[in-house]
TrEMBL record:
Keywords, ordered alphabetically: ATP-binding, Hydrolase, Membrane, Mitochondrion, Mitochondrion inner membrane, Nucleotide-binding, Transmembrane, Transmembrane helix
Source species, domain of life: Eukaryota
Cell location: Mitochondrion inner membrane
Catalysed reactions, as listed in the record: ATP + H2O = ADP + phosphate + H(+)
Organism of this sequence: Coniosporium apollinis
Matching InterPro entries: AAA+_ATPase, AAA_lid_BCS1, ATPase_AAA_core, ATPase_AAA_CS, BCS1_N, Mitochondrial_chaperone_BCS1, P-loop_NTPase
Protein name, entry field: Mitochondrial chaperone BCS1
One Pfam family, short name: AAA_lid_BCS1
Region (Disordered): 124-147, 375-394, 504-523
SMART domains, sorted: AAA (SM00382), BCS1_N (SM01024)
Stated family: Belongs to the AAA ATPase family. BCS1 subfamily.
BCS1 N-terminal domain segment(s): 62-269
Sequence intervals crossing the membrane: 49-75
Topology of this chain in the membrane: Single-pass membrane protein
Length: 610
């Protein structure tokens, strides 16, 4: 057998010269057939078939293709290698986790930069409605969204708010103050995601990396400080509310932000002025930077607790939100009625609190942490009667008795399940145990302070008790005046209240005594004599009476309501249904008062009056 017949050769035309044949042979042997066979299985058989069928040697095309592929691969590898060397040895990084508030701040700042608008791959996110009201041109959009009869179409107005565009996953470069930065948004790798998923966190957890050229992270830290300050300037009049995350995500005591709402002014809380000033002064002294050392040198745990007690609707929770707004603190709300909350979860949540915050335990009397001596005696009597009955009927057990016994066992099992959760000792250990967190402000609210255990409200755990009473005549007048005051009057009151508390807040770094910052906080011009007030910003002010007449109407309105019979929430709810008609409110308050007091005597919870 002639082995030469197995070789693959390109046919040489009769009129071809020897140089052409040599050139074709050189191209054909650019890559040996054995090498091509190793990269492309079956190459020899395919090439012989094409050669005999079409008279064309595909070795040239395949060889050139492999050369191009190898060159591109080498270039891509060198590029990746160069980028790896550059980012590993010539840059500095700062990583930000998704759980941190700085994650959202950086995303919001990046979305406002030019590179976020010109990037080839971006992510569209729905812009919060609250944040869109500060943009220009929204007044015209409000007018355009009014339909027939002046009906405001919320869906049409919301649809006109453009989304926020931010970089998607990957790396984007940008310049800031003459320095090159890189913004990288990424998802956690599979190993880390599986680890976090085992802890109960979301599998699609994200992260951000900010990179700058150089061997120091100082430029990135300065940039983050700038971003944080800009975010603070934008949200300093807002209060963040946090709750414990779900049962699956409580490893390490995870908190998540449920909402951010405008801070409530202290003057809107229906409480005695002297009491409010005393509480603000006490919290201010506790939060002063010198206080931790004072507590430490005297061996006193650096904690502060308050108990707000009184009838429903008297402003207990409202005062908590107002304090958070004054001192720039976040509110961490814990519900002890959560059936999935265990004592270990509660300890982890308390230990994971930030350095300064307000912890709000609402309706502490409904969480089962009660002095229930009467019920214990009743249970003992019931057990005694049950034992006596058992002795008498021990001779015969009927089917009916057996069914009753099974029902009693099931009822007792349900009661035992209902009792599971946070015990009194578990709560006390979380509040002021050996490993409990220091520096937070604990606020507990209750409608029935007499039901609370003495151990829960003893000094050291509850340092100040504040009683909230039903509305007095002074509070009713204040609510009426605040409801129907013009915008400039409300701003004047806010300005005066802010000026009165500026000295207290400045000690903690939260004070704002200058008018420009106060104008930004309230979103309006202050009546300082040199700034015009645009009364037309409110659609309700045309029918509002002057201040002097309003004071007289408030006195007449308050005189028709007996003191400490209705809550401030009741009065405010009545006025809200007539928020454009103060004179109608004065005319109809007597009928509403009678219906409300009659319903209260009968124990009716809902009173409909229009």
């Amino acid at each position: 057998m002639d082995l030469r017949k197995l070789s693959v050769r390109s046919p040489v035309p009769a009129n071809a010269t020897m140089s052409d044949a040599g050139a074709d042979a050189g191209l054909s042997n650019l890559i040996p057939g054995t090498v091509l066979e190793a990269f492309v299985p079956g190459y020899g058989l395919i090439s012989r078939f094409i050669l005999h069928a079409f008279g064309f040697d595909i070795g040239i095309v395949v060889s050139l293709g492999l050369v191009v592929f190898a060159t591109a691969t080498a270039i891509r590898y060198l590029k990746q290698w160069g980028k790896s060397i550059f980012f590993n040895y010539l840059t500095s990084d700062v990583h930000i986790e998704q759980e941190d508030d700085l994650f959202d701040n950086v995303l919001e700042w990046i979305s406002q930069q030019q590179m976020a608008q010109t990037a080839r791959t971006i992510k569209a996110a729905t812009r919060p409605v609250e944040g869109s009201t500060s943009e220009g041109g929204n007044d015209q959009k409000h007018q355009q969204s009014s339909g027939n009869g002046g009906i405001f179409h919320y869906g049409q107005w919301e649809a006109q708010i453009p989304p926020r565009y931010e970089p998607h996953f990957g790396r984007v470069r940008f310049w800031h103050q003459g320095r090159l930065f890189f913004f990288t948004r990424y998802q956690k790798d599979n190993q880390r995601r599986s680890l976090h998923f085992s802890y109960g966190k979301a599998a699609d957890e994200e992260g951000i990396t900010l990179t700058c050229v150089g061997f120091s992270t100082k430029p990135i830290r300065r940039l983050l400080e700038l971003i944080k300050m800009k975010s603070f300037e934008k949200q300093k009049s807002m209060t963040k509310i946090r709750r414990p995350s779900g049962k699956e995500s409580r490893y390490g005591g995870a908190w998540y932000r449920i909402s951010t709402r405008p801070s409530r002014p202290l003057e809107t809380v229906a409480l005695d002025k002297a009491q409010k000033e005393r509480i603000v002064a006490d919290v201010n002294e506790y939060l002063h930077p010198a206080s931790p050392r004072w507590y430490a040198t005297r061996g006193i745990p650096y904690r502060r607790g308050y108990l707000f007690h009184g009838p429903p609707g008297t402003g207990k929770t409202s005062l908590s939100f107002a304090l958070a707004g004054i001192f720039g603190l976040d509110i961490h709300v814990i519900s002890l009625l959560d059936s999935t909350l265990t004592e270990s979860d509660l300890n982890r949540l308390f230990n994971s609190l930030p350095r300064r915050c307000i912890v709000l335990l609402e309706d502490i009397d409904t969480a089962g942490l009660l002095r229930d001596e009467k019920s214990d005696e009743a249970n003992a009597d019931a057990d005694k009667k049950s034992k006596d009955s058992t002795k008498k009927d021990d001779d015969a057990i009927s089917a009916k008795d057996l069914a009753n016994a099974l029902k009693s066992a099931q009822r007792k099992a349900k009661e035992d399940d209902a009792k599971k959760g946070i015990s009194l000792s578990g709560l006390l250990n979380a509040i002021d145990g050996v490993a409990s967190h220091e520096g937070r402000v604990l606020v507990m609210t209750t409608n029935h302070p007499e039901k609370l255990d003495d151990a829960l409200i003893r000094p050291g755990r509850v340092d100040m008790q504040v009683e909230f009473k039903l509305a007095s005549h002074a509070q009713i007048r204040e609510i009426f005046v605040r409801m129907y005051s013009r915008e400039e009057d409300n701003d004047a009151e806010k300005y005066g209240a802010a000026t009165a508390t500026a000295t207290l807040g400045t000690a903690n770094g939260h004070g704002n005594a200058n008018s420009s910052e106060l104008k930004q906080r309230h979103g309006k011009h202050l009546p300082n004599g040199s700034i015009d007030i645009d009364i037309a910003t409110s659609a309700f002010q045309d029918g509002f009476p002057p201040r002097e007449e309003l004071e007289q109407m408030a006195a007449e309105f308050a005189s028709q309501i007996p003191e400490e019979q209705l809550s401030p929430a009741d009065v405010q709810g009545f006025l809200l249904t007539r928020k454009k008609e103060p004179r109608r409110a004065v005319a109809e308050v007597a009928a509403w008062r009678d219906a409300k007091l009659e319903a209260k005597e009968k124990g009716t919870k809902v009173v409909r009056f229009s």
